[in-house]
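Figure 6 in text form: structure in, sequence out.
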C-alpha cells in the first residue's frame, strides 16, 4: 500500500532558458552571442553568457523540449526565464537585429519575446 500514492506524483521538468545555460553554451558555442568556447563553471551562479536570441537558438531549444516532453509527458513544463543578464544581448548584433525586426523596446522586451516564442511552441 505504501506505493499506491506514487501514481499521483507528477514530475514537472524545468529547462532553464535563456539564462543558466553555460553548460549548453560550452557544448554549443554557436548558440551564444559571442560564439566563443566557454568553460562549464564549477559553481552555481548567474552568468552574463546566455542563449542568443537568433533563430537557431530557438530551434535548438524546441528540439530539447521535444525530447524532454517524450521523457516526461506532463501537462506542465517549467521553462525558467529568470536570472538572465542582458549584458551580451546589449552588444550582440543578432539580438539587436531581433529587437529592431520585431519592434521591441529593449532587451527586457526581447526576453519576453524569446519566452513567448517558446510558450507558443509548447502551447
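Output sequence:
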Amino acid at each position: 500500500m505504501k506505493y499506491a500514492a506514487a501514481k499521483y506524483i507528477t514530475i514537472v521538468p524545468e529547462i532553464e532558458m535563456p539564462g543558466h545555460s553555460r553548460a549548453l553554451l560550452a557544448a554549443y558555442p554557436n548558440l551564444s552571442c559571442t560564439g566563443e568556447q566557454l568553460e562549464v563553471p564549477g559553481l552555481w551562479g548567474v552568468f552574463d553568457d546566455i542563449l542568443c536570441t537568433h533563430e537557431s537558438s530557438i530551434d535548438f531549444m524546441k528540439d530539447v523540449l521535444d525530447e524532454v516532453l517524450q521523457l516526461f509527458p506532463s501537462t506542465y513544463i517549467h521553462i525558467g526565464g529568470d536570472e538572465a543578464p542582458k549584458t551580451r544581448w546589449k552588444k550582440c548584433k543578432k539580438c539587436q537585429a531581433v529587437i529592431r525586426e520585431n519592434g521591441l523596446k529593449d532587451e527586457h522586451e526581447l526576453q519576453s519575446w524569446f519566452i513567448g516564442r517558446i510558450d507558443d511552441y509548447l502551447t
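Caption detail: The longest helix spans residues 55-71.
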